[in-house]
Write a structure and sequence with these properties.
Helix content is 14%, strand content 32%. The protein is α+β, with helices and mostly antiparallel strands. The chain has a single domain (32-219), classed as Jelly Rolls (Sandwich), CATH 2.60.120. It is globular and about 45 Å long. The structure holds N-(carboxycarbonyl)-S-(naphthalen-2-ylmethyl)-L-cysteine (MD3) and fe (iii) ion. Residues 140, 142, 196 line the site of fe (iii) ion. Its cofactor is Fe(2+).
Length: 222
């Protein structure tokens, strides 16, 4: 429509920034603000998931308590045991299936994957990480999923984070990428097994999310 007419000037659409797609690797993208128009539908569903399976701090096989708290929804959730890391159909805290993946979360993930060039994404797991100020995630690879052909889709909410994007060896140089509320990152193909981590979150209070960062990662795990 004519942008100078007043009719829809204050509609959500008119207020929306154009989505910016930044390429950060051969097959990796950050879709700036991509999740913002979805959030008022996503956040109530996320709250309902967390009411069923609350955040908990998992202990690594090496005996370290992770500083990021974790939950999951979908057919599979990520867990730690003394044996190692694995995906499980049951929430070990409750010995019950994880909450189902809310359709609006699934739709957001599939839509973002497609915007980054990955069609037919079929996520079966959504990991939910909560970082309070000071929490971090050290450099690691995600390699517990059965199928590395599928991308990983990550939605950042709340306080900003500095994401570290490394190479295929732990010792490879890392690039720093700031991730903000509403940003969606998509990784796949040749970048799927790159080392990555999150620097300690700086103190702050996000106007919508409070004093925390929440990250959703959608994967095809099984
Ligand atoms: C790059 N989470 O849960 S998500 C994780 O922000 C994890 O909570 C971080 O790493 C967070 O495992 C980063 C972005 C992400 C996820 C998977 C990747 C980046 C990736 C796999 C390969 C390369
Ligand atoms: Fe990871």
């Amino acid at each position: 429509m004519d942008p100078h007419s007043t009719g829809d000037l204050f509609s959500d659409e008119a207020l929306q920034q154009p989505a910016r797609r930044e390429q950060i690797g051969e097959q990796s993208y950050v879709l700036r603000g991509y999740a913002l128009p979805w959030l008022e539908r996503v956040l109530p569903e996320l709250r309902a998931v967390l009411a069923q399976s609350p955040f908990r701090h998992m202990v690594t096989p090496g005996g370290f308590t992770m500083s990021a708290a974790l939950s999951s929804c979908g057919e599979l959730g990520w867990t730690t045991t003394t044996q190692g890391y694995r995906y499980s159909p049951l929430d070990p805290e409750r010995q019950q299936p994880w909450p189902g993946m809310p359709p609006i979360l699934r739709e957001l993930a599939i839509d973002a994957a497609s915007a980054a060039g990955f069609d037919a994404f079929a996520p079966d797991a959504c990991l939910i990480n909560r970082y309070v100020p000071g929490a971090r995630m050290s450099l690691h690879q995600d390699k517990n999923e059965r199928n590395y052909n599928a991308p990983v889709v990550s939605v950042s909410l709340g306080l900003p984070a500095v994401f570290l994007f490394g190479g295929h060896q732990r010792s490879d140089k890392t690039q720093k990428i700031s991730l903000f509320h509403g940003d969606v990152a998509v990784w796949g193909g040749v970048d799927r097994l790159r080392y990555h981590g999150v620097q300690p979150i700086k103190p702050g209070v996000h106007p919508r999310m409070g004093p925390q960062r929440i990250n959703l990662t959608f994967r095809t795990a099984g």
